[in-house]
UniProtKB/TrEMBL annotation:
InterPro entries: Homeodomain-like_sf, HTH-type_TetR-like_transc_reg, HTH_TetR, Tet_transcr_reg_TetR-rel_C_sf, TetR_C_Proteobacteria. Residues 67-86 bind DNA. Keywords: DNA-binding. It comes from Hoeflea algicola. Residues 44-104 form the HTH tetR-type domain. SUPFAM superfamilies: Homeodomain-like, Tetracyclin repressor-like, C-terminal domain. It holds the Pfam family TetR_C_7. This is TetR/AcrR family transcriptional regulator.
Amino acid sequence: MTIAWYRSLPVDRCGTVRYRTGQDRNRVGCHMSEPTPSKRPSVEQRRATILAASAQIFFEQGYAATSIDSIIAKIGGSKRNIYSEFGSKEGLFTALVTEITDNALADMTVERLADPDLKNTLMEFGRRLIEVYISPTVVGVLRTVMAETSRFPELARAFYEKGPSRASARLAELLERSKARGEINVRDCLLSADNFTGMLRGNLHLQVVLGLREPPDPDEIETILTSVVETFLHGVRGR
């Protein structure tokens, strides 16, 4: 079970989830299959329920204003169970970011994206990464981190290490394979991967995070992606 459905809910410019229906508002706590009275939820179900409820509360109230008590009030249970599973509120937020990143990177494995044509590989990787960057869930996490980073710098560190850093490392693996085949000439594949992902984000992603514009539609994504891939390939092959 995952909380992937949450990224489909729209987020307004303040980072607040805009629920389409009353069902959406309640879905965080009940999207899991409800156990029968005689059957207790599994550890996996319980963890997914906690993370889903936490996502809603973190994004709506912010990190500082969110308490373990508010999460317990929504889903029931005890503080001991949450502290036993996650260690602290910081641990809970880190687990949430990890869950989101794991879902996002699940299909971005080296094996699945290792197309013999590097351009095809970069197009597919970039397309999936842009979709992740502009998803309401990731935008909500980033807004939370940006709002709290001065008071809770560990949140920014957790977000970077669990999110952008892992994406660059995954792409660096693909570039290393291409470099071994003599297709590209770069000194540092991880640095090149950072450059590629940075180009993908650009000012457009910042505008979305700041609420200055709506996320790009599929046609605009393809236009941006094609420009980034062509520019990147010109640099890594033009030596």
